[in-house]
Amino acid sequence: MSVEAGAEPAPEGTIVGAPQHEPGDGPAARWFAGFTWRLREALPDWLKRLVPVTFIGYAIINGSAFLLDMGILRLVDVVVPDHGIPYGVIFSIGYGIASVYAFALNRWLNFREHGDLGKQSGKYTFVIISNYVIWILGFGSLLGALNVPLMVARVTAACIEGIYIYLMLRLWVFPRAKRPVDDEPRDAEPGPVAP
C-alpha cells in the first residue's frame, strides 16, 4: 500500500490496515484491539460484513464472564447440595459478579471508552437490571417451573440475554457516531509491517 500525498507514513511496527488506537489506550487495550481485529480478518468476507470487531471482543469477554457465572453456579450446587434455593436467587449471585467483571473489561478493552464513567455505569446498571428481570428472573424462573435442569436453563437464558446486552452496549451505553474498528472491511488484505 502506498502512502497518500501529504499523509504521514504509519509508525514503525504498525500493520497497515489495522485498527487505530485511541488516546488513552494502554498496552492491554491496544493488544486486545489488534487481537480481535485479526480474528475478524480471519473470517470469510461475507461474515466480515456482518460481524463488527466489537462483537468479537464482546463474545470473548462475555463468554469468559459466562464461564465465571457458570462456575459460581456449579460451586453453589456442589458446596450446598439439595440447597432448595430458587433458581432466581442462585442466578443472581453469579450474574452480579459476572456483570461487574464484563462491564469493566468491555469498557477498558473492547469499546475502549474513556468517557463519563458515572453516566456509562448508570446506563449499564439499567441494562443489567432490565436484562436480569426479563431474562434471568422471568425467563429463568419459567424454565425452572418447567423443570428444565439448572445448567440448561442458565445456558438458554444466556444465549438470549447475550444478544440483548451487546445491542444495548453498542447502541446506548458506549455509543459513538462512528467506530473506526467497525467500519466496512477493507478491500485489501492486511499488508506488511510499515517501515
TrEMBL record:
It holds the Pfam family GtrA_DPMS_TM. InterPro entries: GtrA_DPMS_TM. The chain crosses the membrane at residues 50-73, 85-104, 124-145, 151-169. It is a multi-pass membrane protein. Keywords: Membrane, Transmembrane, Transmembrane helix. One of its GO terms (cellular component) is membrane. GO terms for biological process: polysaccharide biosynthetic process. Residues 58-174 form the GtrA/DPMS transmembrane domain. It comes from the Bacteria. The keyword Membrane applies. Residues 1-22 are annotated as: Disordered. It is found in: Membrane. Its main location: membrane. This is GtrA family protein. It comes from Propioniciclava coleopterorum.
